[in-house]
Amino acid sequence: MKKLYACLIILLGLSGTLKAQITNADITHQFNFTNDNFDFGKIPYGKPAQYTLTITNIGKDTATLDDVRPSCGCTTPQFERGKKFAPGESVKVVLGFNGNTLGPFYKTAGIFLNNYKLSKQVSFKGETFQQPASDSGKMKQTGTVIHQ
Fold this sequence. Notes:
Blueprint: H1 2-20, H2 27-30, E1 31-34, E2 37-44, E3 49-57, E4 63-70, E5 75-78, E6 83-85, E7 90-97, E8 103-113, E9 118-129, E10 145-146
Parallel strand pairs: 2-9, 3-10
Antiparallel strand pairs: 1-3, 3-7, 4-6, 4-8, 5-7, 8-9
């Protein structure tokens, strides 16, 4: 009899926990992502590029941007960890790519929100190309490609 009561208590506890969890399916009801599947097009090989991902809170409660985790070391995120943003407000995440992949590339980053209860994978792609060798008398343009 004690085992039966123990099993019932465990099952009731688990059912309450499962109902309280938020699923990633809910993320589209709470956030709008702009540039979550970004295409750089063609960029010069070895030339860093970056773009801005915007996350807008369309839910009813204040949200928190917990973390941004890129899939590889060639991608660098710039964001404010722990940033809280109210309904209607947005946060920006800048994702940088070092450009050191020759040819087509596809990269991802995980976005974690609300105490890591919600997550979304965002991606960017493009293709790098070799620039022709510059003539000795001409100046070569350098810098970072920036997309908004």
